[in-house]
Model the fold of this input.
Amino acid sequence: MLLERKRLAVALALVVASLAPARADESIGPDRFDTVVIDAGHGGDDAGARGAAGLVEKELVLDVAFRLAKRLAENGLQVVMTRHDDSFVPLEQRTSIANDARADLFISIHGNATHDAKVRGIETFFLALSASDEHAGQVARRENQAFRLEGTPARRSDDALVAIIGDLIASEHMEESNEFARLAQAKLAGDPEVARGVKQAPFVVLEGVQMPAALVEIGFLTNRLDEKKLQRSEERDRIAAALTRAALEFGQRYDARRGVGSR
Ligand SMILES: [Zn+2]
Done:
């Protein structure tokens, strides 16, 4: 009983913290869109997907993350990266890094994989408890595999109460997460042939992130054409530039909604 009460107190504190104007600069005006977290998927023992020609997801996405970070910084944004090198960072630690930074947007970058070598293109995701289709569910299961490597005995969200609270917090940002996922899809997949759309799935790394958040699959390592493209520096720059445009446009809308003038 005491434990239950303790849990309730923790959960309520979480809600209050997420709803209250928590920023120190809140007194001088509404929150401005100024901080973006870039999450390069995988790392260390968790290599992620591998292409037939040798492209490794953890290396690809870290390189794209650095290119994106550089461009966002050039546009005056503060950037926080969940990893800077080939190290294993647990999924829940990535969430904590983002929340501690009180960022305004969380972008997780991944490379896709499927058993059908013909499938190629761009997919963007935002969090949902159930996948929007079978393929989206498969993508989430694959990207969540790192969770098992972490050796966590029980997921924090197995605590039903905290899970419900977490869902409340997540749904608060669901519309904006959807908005960024759509912007990213539109900017990234200029060619309709590679636009596979915005989907929803239960990604562990997006759970509990207290800000708009999306996961971007920048191409299929299991497709020969996509892999070849993703090996090229020009394509990685194109992806970074497209995600930068999406973030900046999202930021303008974000500020406009909060009554903040343009930067
Ligand atoms: Zn991945």
User: Anything to note?
Assistant: The chain has one domain: 32-257. The CA atoms of residues 121 and 193 lie 7 Å apart. DSSP finds nine helices and six strands in the chain.
